[in-house]
Design goal:
Layout: H1 6-22, H2 24-36, H3 43-52, E1 54-57, E2 60-63, H4 72-83, H5 86-89, H6 94-118, H7 131-141, H8 143-157, H9 173-176, H10 179-196, H11 203-211, H12 213-225, H13 232-238, H14 244-273, H15 277-281, H16 295-327, H17 335-349, H18 351-378
Antiparallel strand pairs: 1-2
Helix pairs in contact: 1-8, 2-8, 2-16, 3-4, 6-10, 6-14, 6-16, 6-18, 7-8, 7-12, 8-16, 10-11, 10-12, 14-18, 16-18, 17-18
Keywords: Membrane, Transmembrane, Transmembrane helix
Length: about 375
């Protein structure tokens, strides 16, 4: 195999520099998110709530759990983080509860996408292989801070040109098969349980489990993948689109859950909530504002901004990726048409479902383009 020419290496460096410059707005969003999603001023209040031993709502007192894993430092960190979730978990802030159920349903779409990107052959030997770094840190500082940085790196390191070589778009099937089962075990089960478990006190146990979903999902992912054979070498030559049906099924399932949560939020807003969709999802002040007078209000604003920084930036990233497709001539749809379709999907199905559907469309286009390119070379 011949080594890349100096001219080719120079072109690659120039291309990466160009993509870095184009992606700078994503880095700017990361910086803005870090400034906005800063709980430092409210941590002393959360510590006081934790020390009090309980939260009170609707005439009910609920004891706060201090211990779950019986690892002192870990339990201390997670029990403090859990305080910020109490208003939505127990529903004494019903608006925040609805927003969080939709947010975490959208997060399931993103988690499936990140895991699939991590096992794409074209992303080998890049940080895209380690989504746990972003999700685990995101549990501490807010995923809204880490997600834009992931998208910034992805745009630089995973250009569409990487997939012109046959099989580079392909995901490794034994890992691909493990994605949704792992997400169900590590993410969906604790998420839905912490919001819908009938025994209120037990919800905190599920919250402790969900806080470590990056670890439990990763362990489940690696364990389940061992049940399947690695067919990547054969697939890249003879079946470069073999993973697509499974990808559609897995991301489609996550899209359905996210769309269901969005439609439920619409229904709740119109029938019993007394709050508009704008009030549920769009913050009216900064979490850092001096007008924020309670921990409950801070939580509501923080989580609304977190949702926007995660999924909103994901949609911006998706626009970048479609820009690549249009520049390569792989998508002929005009920008106005793309934005109108996206806006309609956003309104009816929600941001998470829109993200998943857009990513699936891109996956289909990239797969077809790579296969057609390979076929042309053989002729």
């Amino acid at each position: 195999m011949s080594s890349p020419s100096p001219q080719g290496a120079t072109h690659q460096k120039a291309s990466k520099l160009r993509r870095l410059l184009i992606a700078l707005p994503l880095l700017g969003i990361t910086i803005l998110a870090k400034q906005t999603l800063n709980p430092a001023s409210w941590i002393p209040t959360a510590i006081d709530v934790l020390k009090s031993g309980s939260v009170h709502f609707d005439g009910t007192s609920m004891k706060l759990w201090h211990t779950f894993y019986h690892i002192t430092k870990l339990d201390e960190i997670i029990s403090l983080l859990n305080v910020f979730f109490m208003p939505s978990v127990y529903g004494f802030d019903p608006v925040s509860r609805v927003q969080m159920i939709s947010f975490l349903s959208d997060g399931g779409v993103l988690l499936n996408i990140w895991l699939l990107e991590s096992v794409r052959r074209g992303n080998a030997s890049t940080i895209m292989q380690l989504p746990i770094l972003f999700t685990l840190a995101g549990q501490i500082v807010g995923l809204g801070v880490l997600a834009p940085f992931y998208f910034f790196l992805h745009y630089i390191l995973s250009p569409i040109g990487n997939f012109q070589v046959t099989g580079q778009r392909l995901t490794r099937m034994h890992y691909t098969a493990a994605v949704l089962p792992a997400v169900v075990i590590g993410y969906y089960v604790p998420f839905y349980s912490l919001y819908f478990w009938p025994e209120l006190g037990t919800r905190q146990g599920w919250l402790f489990l969900w806080q470590l979903y990056p670890i439990t999902t990763s362990i489940s992912f690696l364990a389940i993948s061992r049940l399947f054979a690695d067919t990547a070498a054969r697939d890249s030559l003879h079946a470069p689109k073999r993973d697509l049906p499974l990808i559609r099924a897995y991301v489609g399932t996550a899209v359905t859950l996210a769309a269901g949560a969005w439609v439920w939020a619409w229904f709740w807003s119109l029938t019993e909530g007394g709050a508009s969709m704008a009030a549920i999802f769009i913050p009216t002040a900064s979490p850092q504002s001096t007008s924020v007078a309670s921990l409950t209000r801070f939580n509501e604003l923080f989580l609304q901004y977190d949702h926007i920084f995660v999924i909103g930036t994901a949609l911006v990233w998706q626009a970048y990726l479609f820009g690549d497709l249009k520049a390569a001539g792989a998508v002929q749809v005009s920008w106005p048409s793309l934005f109108l379709r996206g806006a309609a999907s956003l309104l009816v199905l929600g941001p998470g479902a829109t993200l998943g559907l857009g990513w699936l469309w891109r996956e289909h286009v990239v797969a077809s383009r790579a296969v057609n390119s390979a076929a042309a070379k053989k002729r």
